[in-house]
Write a structure and sequence with these properties.
14 strands; mainly beta
Length: about 200
C-alpha cells in the first residue's frame, strides 16, 4: 500500500519534468504527505499535461476512512474504480514514499523508499471530480498499488505502481481505453530502490 509519501520538488521543476502547465496555485513541496491532504497530480487533456490540485482519498461509502489506494489487479472489476480506470487516470509525483516494517518484537520501523538516481518519480493514480459539502467542484485522487518487488517485500507486501517515463506517458494518454494494455503497465517496479530508516 502507500499510506504516506513525500514531494520535495519545486513547481518549475515539476513542469519541466512532466512537460506540464501549472494549474495548482499555492503549491508547496512537502516532506510528508498524509491522506486527505491536497496534493499535486498530473492530468492529460488532449495533447497537453496539467499539474492540478487534488484531495488524496476517495470518499468511502462503508466507513470514514478515505480510499487512498486502489489495487491494480482489480481496477477493471471494482465498481468504484472501473470507469475511472478507463478514462480518468493521472500521475501522482513523489520524491519518496513511506512504509512501516514489522520487527520480530512486534514493533514497527518507519522506512523511507526512494528510487536510485531519480529524485522525482511518477506513481499511477486515478482521479474523479465531485461536489464538496458546499457544492463546489473538487478533484479527489487515489494511488494505484501492486505486489511488492523482491527488495520491497522485505518491508511490505504491497507498493505503489512506479511508472518510468515511457509507461507514464501511456498511462496518461486519454485516448487509450484498452484495459488489457493498461493493466499490463501496472507491474512491480524492476529498478533499484533505496531504503532509509526514519528515526
Amino acid at each position: 500500500m502507500c499510506g504516506r509519501y513525500q514531494l520535495e520538488y519545486g513547481m518549475n521543476q515539476l513542469m519541466l519534468l512532466f512537460d506540464a502547465d501549472n494549474r495548482y496555485l499555492g503549491y508547496e513541496s512537502k516532506h510528508e504527505i498524509f491522506p486527505t491532504d491536497m496534493v499535486a497530480i498530473i492530468k492529460s487533456e488532449g495533447k497537453r499535461n496539467y499539474i492540478e490540485p487534488a484531495k488524496w482519498g476517495f470518499k468511502n461509502q462503508f466507513d470514514n476512512r478515505p480510499l487512498i489506494n486502489a489495487r491494480g489487479e482489480t481496477l477493471d472489476e471494482k465498481k468504484t474504480f472501473k470507469n475511472l480506470f478507463a478514462q480518468s487516470r493521472c500521475l501522482v509525483p513523489a520524491s519518496a514514499f513511506f512504509e512501516w516494517r514489522k520487527n520480530p518484537d512486534g514493533s514497527k520501523t518507519k522506512v523511507q523508499i526512494t528510487i536510485t538516481d531519480n529524485p522525482v518519480f511518477a506513481m499511477a493514480g486515478l482521479y474523479k471530480i465531485e461536489q464538496d459539502e458546499k457544492g463546489d467542484a473538487i478533484t479527489r485522487c487515489t494511488i494505484v498499488t501492486t505486489s511488492a518487488n523482491i527488495e520491497m517485500s522485505k518491508v511490505h507486501d504491497r507498493m505503489p505502481v512506479l511508472l518510468p517515463k515511457e509507461l507514464a506517458n501511456a498511462w496518461l494518454d486519454d485516448t487509450i481505453h484498452d484495459t488489457m494494455l493498461l493493466k499490463d503497465l501496472l507491474k512491480s517496479y524492476d529498478g533499484a530502490l533505496q531504503f532509509h530508516t526514519v528515526a
